[in-house]
Design goal:
- The complex is a heterodimer.
- By secondary structure, chain A is α/β, with parallel strands linked by helices.
- Chain A has 9 helices and 12 strands.
- In chain A, helix 5 packs parallel to helix 6.
- By secondary structure, chain B is mainly α.
- Chain B folds into 2 domains: about 300 residues, ABC transporter involved in vitamin B12 uptake, BtuC (Orthogonal Bundle), CATH 1.10.3470; about 70 residues.
- Chain B has 16 helices and 2 strands.
- A two-stranded antiparallel sheet of chain B has the order 1-2.
- In chain B, helix 2 runs parallel beside helix 15 and helix 11 packs across helix 13.
- Chain B is globular, with a radius of gyration of 23 Å.
- The chains are: A alpha/beta, B mainly alpha.
- At the A-B interface, strand 8, helix 4, helix 5 and helix 6 of A face helix 8, helix 11 and helix 12 of B.
- Chain A: GO terms for molecular function: ATP binding; ATP hydrolysis activity.
- Chain A: It comes from Streptomonospora mangrovi.
- Chain A: Keywords: ATP-binding, Nucleotide-binding.
- Chain A: This is ATP-binding cassette domain-containing protein.
Chain lengths: ~260, ~425
């Protein structure tokens, strides 16, 4: 496998009495979709915030293309080339697609907007993603949930990132819309981007992810190649099915017997 | 009209007319470029709740017809000329209110700010003998400073705009009373720069010149813009539509100049007002700053995450609103030749907000345009002027204005709902 574009090792983060992340490792290679899985409170969101620079880690190392970096603020992550698409898509409903795509990075000369250039580039970008919209000049409020998600993802690509993090991109989407977003994720992979996909939906993960990294109670609970891992194994890692009184007892019992022997 | 558009597996090679270089979705309505096609598209938009300026223009025409039938002098050049000067002061204040409404906020202090600035103007120009031009600049500066103060308290400290400007409503009126002192009225010279603002009328040739320049500029820029779009391979407006739009601009512009020239000519005050409306329309639609204002109004959090300095946008908008209020106050002083305790202390605030809403700017933020100030101002001005001719007093005027305001807000709310059901967005 090629050098990981992003590699985290030994990441820890504590909020007061809560150890949200404890020695977590994660790596993403170019052209790889890594699913980040875990139950509620497993630390997925905290890890995303560490990578995005919203909540820097207390300890641990981050390597970017093999070189150690520190991500202390959201701007640091953006400069490196990490784009984060949060669940609430942060689109302005009253603005049209072009305006939303270029929000904050408008093409302008002396403060005057260059609408033609923006619309042309928006067209090219959406074309390259094979995305079809009824019109680029409709307010995004009129778009379906899937289309809005696609616009949010497309917007993050304007900054030419190398890693894209998607937080629950298919939550609250219908069947066809989910398929649209999954198609788009595959296209990101084909472009050589590293994708970190946070999802609760095992079907989505199995459809697009290459690896599944499972967090449980703030720790790594498994790193599976999705193709050769069964659904049950991943779910067991997420829920900690192997971590219950019965299995613990049987574990202790077997240890006890070996000691007696 | 949101179609669920599936992503095609492979990008279609045909650069279709759909705007995106893939096959047009067969379910999408394709706007024909022929005149009937354009008319059908317009009708579809109206049914979908995108009323644009249509209701207020229809309303204005109805009001004019009704008053003309009741009083033959209503549409006389003299009355219309007076009307245009009357709407200028509140109109400038309305332009400021529109900026604040676009943010989804409200400014209740504009009347008091206009009054306070007006008293600063009079005190400087009359009591202290400062040159009138300097006094005008100082009054505008007063408005600007007040707006920056309001905006900062709102944006940086987080006090709701409603409360900040309610305090402003009281406080700046207090300043106005304090400055004017026991006399309560300061009369200004009727031949100075201040008076000239509303006493100046341009010779007919000048008025025609402005009309020609405005329409020609619009046509040239539209043609150039559409040519650039076509050159970049983007859908451009067909010539028929450009012709219709130019005509829709030329008729009222030349009509207004024609009527105003029948009396004294185009009044400077009205020109100032319309000039600011056009300037703010261009700022809102064509500049990064305008885009930021709409973005903050549509979703402050989204704007913040996109790297927009939300606080700076908010402070600047409140500053502009108060500055325009100060200008409105100056025009009020100019018209009455005096700054008094009554200057902008009465209905001006309510009328300015009402005009903005009647003109079509949404109270819900993020939707609207600067032309609302002109259209809404003309509607309220026409009602005032017509009732005055019919010798009906303030009570009737208030009741009728209230009714018009209610109709306008109802239209806003209903069209908002229609837009939702037609998936055109709130």
């Amino acid at each position: 496998m090629s050098t990981p574009v992003l590699e985290l090792s030994g990441i820890s983060k504590r909020f007061g009495a809560v150890q949200a992340l404890d020695q977590v490792d994660l790596r993403v290679a170019p052209g790889e979709v890594v699913a980040l899985l875990g139950d509620n409170g497993a630390g997925k969101s905290t890890l995303v915030k560490v990578i995005a620079g919203v909540n820097p880690a207390d300890s641990g190392d981050i390597l970017w293309e093999g070189k150690p970096v520190s991500i202390g603020r959201p701007g640091d992550a953006q400069r490196l080339g990490i784009a984060t698409i949060y669940q609430d898509l942060a689109l302005c409903d009253n603005l049209d697609i072009v305006a939303n795509l270029f929000l904050g990075v408008e093409k302008s000369a002396a403060g005057i907007l260059n609408e033609v250039e923006m619309e042309r580039r928006a067209l090219k970008l959406l074309d390259s993603l094979s995305v079809k919209m009824p019109s680029l000049r409709v307010p995004v409020a009129s778009l379906s949930g899937g289309q809005r998600q696609i616009i949010a993802i497309a917007r993050s690509l304007l900054g030419e990132p190398k890693v894209v993090m998607l937080d629950e991109p298919t939550a609250a989407l219908g069947v066809a819309q989910t398929a649209q977003v999954l198609d788009l994720i595959e296209r990101l992979r084909d472009r050589g981007l590293g994708v970190i996909l946070i999802s609760h939906n095992m079907a989505d993960v199995r459809a697009v992810a290459d690896r599944a990294v499972v967090l449980r109670l703030g720790r790594n609970a498994g790193d599976f190649p999705v193709e050769d891992t069964s659904y049950e194994e991943i779910v067991a890692a997420i829920t900690g099915a192997a971590d219950n009184p019965v299995s613990r007892r049987s574990g202790r019992a077997s240890v006890g017997r070996t000691e007696e022997a | 009209m949101a179609q669920q558009t599936p992503i095609t597996g492979k990008a279609g090679a045909s650069g279709g007319k759909s705007g995106i270089g893939v096959e047009p979705d067969p379910r999408l309505l394709v706007t024909q470029t022929s005149p009937p096609g354009l008319a059908a598209a317009a009708l579809r938009r109206i049914r979908g709740g995108e009323l644009g300026p249509l209701p207020v223009i229809v309303g204005l025409i109805v009001i004019c017809v009704v008053f003309q039938l009741m009083h033959e002098r209503f549409l006389s050049p003299q009355n219309l000329s007076n009307l245009t000067v009357q709407v200028a002061a509140v109109g400038l204040m309305t332009t400021g209110v529109i900026m604040v409404l676009l943010l989804g906020e409200i400014d209740l202090s504009i009347g008091s700010v206009a009054g306070a600035s007006a008293s600063v103007l009079a005190v400087l120009a009359v009591r202290m003998g400062v040159s009138e031009w300097l006094a005008i600049l100082a009054a505008i500066g007063t408005g600007l400073a007040i707006g920056i103060l309001h905006g900062t308290v709102f944006a940086k400290i987080g006090v709701p705009a409603f409360v900040v400007t309610l305090a402003g409503l009281l406080g700046w009126q207090g300043v106005q009373l304090q400055l004017l002192g026991s006399d309560g009225t300061i009369n200004i010279s009727d031949s100075g720069a201040i008076a000239a603002l509303t006493q100046t009328f341009f010779v007919p040739a000048f008025g025609w010149g402005i009309a020609v320049v405005v329409v020609a500029t619009f046509l040239v820029f539209t043609l150039l813009g559409e040519r650039r779009r076509a050159a970049a391979g983007l859908p451009a407006k067909p010539p028929v539509e450009i012709a219709v739009r130019t005509l829709a601009l030329a008729v009222p512009v030349f009509g207004a100049v024609f009527v105003l020239n029948q009396f004294k000519g185009v009044p400077l005050a009205f020109l100032i007002f319309v000039g600011f409306v056009v300037a703010f329309d261009l700022i809102l639609r064509k500049t990064r700053y305008g885009r930021m204002v709409f973005a903050v109004g549509g979703g402050a959090e989204a704007a913040r995450r996109a790297g927009i300095n939300v606080d700076a946008v908010r402070i600047s908008v409140f500053a502009l609103a108060s500055m325009l209020s100060a200008m409105g106050g100056i025009i009020l002083v100019s018209r009455s030749f005096s700054a008094s305790l009554d200057t902008a202390a009465g209905e001006e605030l309510m009328m300015a907000i009402a005009a903005a809403v009647i003109g079509g700017t949404s109270l819900f933020g993020g939707r609207g345009n600067a032309y609302s100030a002109l259209l809404g101002g003309l509607v309220l001005g026409a009602i005032t002027s017509g009732l005055y001719l019919l010798q009906m007093g303030t009570p009737v005027r208030f009741m009728i204005t209230a009714l018009v305001l209610l109709v306008a807000v109802t239209l806003d709310a209903v069209s908002r709902r229609t837009r939702r059901t037609h998936a055109r967005g709130g």
